[in-house]
Amino acid sequence: MPQLSLDYEPDIQTLWITLRPEPKPVFTLPLIESVGRVQDAVMKLWGLEEDRPVRYLAYRSSGAIFSLGGDLDYYLDCLRANDRAGLRRYADQATNVIRLNRTGLDGAVITLTNVRGKAIGGGIDPARACNVMIAEEGATFSYPEINFNHFPISAVPVLSRHTGPIEAEKILLSAAEYSAAEFQQKGAVDEVVPAGAGDDWIRRYAARSLTSHSARVSVIAAFNQQAGERLGAMSGYAEAWTDHILRLKPIEIAKLQRIAAAQERMLSRMLRSETESTSA
What pTM does this model have? Predict the structure, then answer.
């Protein structure tokens, strides 16, 4: 499966998904589809079997950036070709991954994410959709999309589930950047841990909660139901997002192009810095 790697720890029944998007740390369509295939495989292989070997699905990134968000280069390619089907495919695949993260693969697992580095816009939502999202010190969170007349596909139902709708609206309309501690204060992060300690925190969580796994899954399902199952009608969010992208004006598309170019420059600077540090 392209753009991710898998690791399994049998003693804590945890399957790790390490995100390795290329060429940028964004949620590319191949990465989204690979995550979807892992989710489907876990459900088809074991479902809700009593002795299923995977009870925790844990996400982490492979680099210094968790995610810069959606794949702007892909959006721009689709806009140039007027490819509505391509945009809708991206939106449908992304929202399905997010829905399954929220529901724990329809009750099969508990989903967790360790965020390190920058998490931006649509790159936050698949992580925050997980049942537990922790952040390492130094991580930052922001939704800058409003500045270029854009919005993440599923940020409203995902974020408001944890912060409440009023605070979620403020976050999405402010475009402000928050530290891990600030995001936790707003209810959007479950735990802040020291830099480099996130994976071990997840291991300890899985180890101590194995005996109460089924009860935890039931409690999560009950709260999702009480919240109105906002993620149940994801097709509506996907359609609204696709329509919005296709209505972008030339000046707004130019902004997306500049942001995509800025991402390239930022990554080039990071690569040069890493190379210089290694050679030194």
Answer: 0.92
